Amino acid sequence: MALANDPNFGSRLLVRHDTVMQRLREEVQSVMGNAVYPSREQIRKMPFLTMVIKESLRLFPPVPLNNRTAKKTTILPRGGGPDGKAPILVRRGELVVFSQYVNARRKNIYGPDADEFRPERWAERGVSTNFGWAYFPFNGGPRTCLGQDFALMEVSYTIVRLLQAIPIIRLPAGETGKGLIGTEKQRLTLVLSSADGCPVELSRTKQ
Fold it and tell me: How far apart are CA 123 and CA 40, in angstroms?
């Protein structure tokens, strides 16, 4: 499953953003209390968890590149000319490639901090809304991923249980939290993955 990489990138982002990690832990604790296994209803009461996952998928979409073949000749309203604002002709049979990875980093859409991990940006527009076609980790329209709901619930459940079971999740000694997002080594096959994995230190005992 493509979204299986999200806990990897999500963990990589969380251990480098302590305040986000702590806020997420507090939300999980406030909703779950002494309960162990989160239900769908409980997960839906965690808006910050939703924002963290959305932001992780924005920066590291499971499928960063996709394409479609034009079934008929058409004209797109924008995309041509020196500034990309003129109409552009797409002939029947031509391949159109589009990138969620590139689109999600556009500063004219997400702001000057588009390259930063900032889950709070989703609260500014409302958790229930998105950035239109600037955010499409599961594609959209009639070709929307059929497993979207299951995948999001699966990664939500995994993150909640990880935070419940492991009180200490941090960068291991020798690892640096510095460096711009997107400068880490990445591997692109059918899906996007981290070439170096996600080194973290886990401890069940607070020290």
Answer: 21
